[in-house]
Sequence to fold (467 residues):
Amino acid sequence: MTTRFPLFFASLAALCIPAVYAADGGHPVLLVSIDGMRPDYVLKADQYGLKIPRLRTILASGAHATGVRGVLPTVTYPSHTTLLTGVWPSKHGIYSNVAFDPQNLNAQGWLWYSEDIRVPTLWEAAAKAGYGVGSVSWPVSVGAKGVSYLIPEYWRAPKSSEDIKLIRALSTPGLVAEIEKTAGAYIDDLDQAEAGDRQRTQYAVAIIRMKKPRLMTVHLAALDHLEHADGPFSPSALRTLEQADAELGELEDAMSAVSASPILCVVSDHGFARTDHSFNLVGALTESGLPASAHLDGGSASIVMNDPRDEAGRRKVSEFLQRLADEPANGIERILNSEEISRMGGWTRASFWVDMKTNYSVVGTGPVNTARKAAGTHGFAPTHSDLLAAFFICGPRRGALAKPRRNRYAQYCADAGQDAGDQTAVRRSAGAQTRLTTRLTRIICLAKPSARRSCPGEAGGSCLRPL
Ligand SMILES: [Zn+2]
Fold:
């Protein structure tokens, strides 16, 4: 795949970029993440009887990937950060949702803070290209550089009314107070899943209408919540996706009302698997007395040695993990070693990674292995087909052209789909999710040649390649 890149980008340059620049100096971009949306919700919408007219329209008139290979682990914060940086967790530094904290000093804190992102983001690239940038509830956005109208995803005591003060304090000064006069109180409690998405949408629409950002990123989280509770494609998940589609429509309409020819891009961070068993890796490891900790990511867990120089301990942990994997009832798909983790771009502190079969979640309490109520999770290695993420895009003059590939933004992403959706390519490639950033970055960065140096991939030394 790698050797195809120079030719591929050269062809994009010939076909697309000069026209983009000549048209109007770059199009506004609305980037909406529907957390946990498998692409087959949209690709097989008829099969599920889904009323999702907006997503169906993008599918029919834009371009898409049939599946995007994510990162290790396929969880929300590393994945969203890859979408905005084009590099793997080992480079951008967001290795999990929750901070590694074996001594429990951090009160279950998540990796909320953008200062932990080690490379430039699409927000920064867009700002340097002259775009006004807005964002609502995007993961790892506390303190995000380049975002002029920011409401970050954050919580500490979401059942308390005190948390709204945190949101006001961490958002662009005055922004939340300005919007809540008409939209009502913001909701940061993820347990209020559907109501929370309603408010995220209302606040994002208000930012679009009042501030007219040219790049707007919005994270809708409810689908993921219902999938965890009831499993993917459950009645509650289908209902929630229909709500997300309506919210997507409100966002798109607002963006179209304030800016000419916006590009709409809908992504997800990861797919989802149906689970009916769990495996208590933490309990097994603790009982063994071995010098290592397990950091859980839903469908997988990284194993961190207490002392990374302890080679004898590492061998014992390796043998122990293999014995666990040899017991079929534990549900372990395979144990990744540090070289395999490195090749997948996973967390560099992990010496091993325990990847589960997709009907198992890895937990920290309860029996070693047990059957559970049907539910859902993600976080497995990105090689499982259930974990493929979504990517849909459409550009100006949507619907006016009979053949989507004649739409140059559709062309961008038909190519993305070709890369990311082809199963052979997915298995061979080293993280197709990284490539989506390439397309979005180039829509923005290459609209202004003077801003090309600010593209995240180029500045971050990633797999993105300059033209
Ligand atoms: Zn997620």
Summary: The longest strand covers residues 369-377.
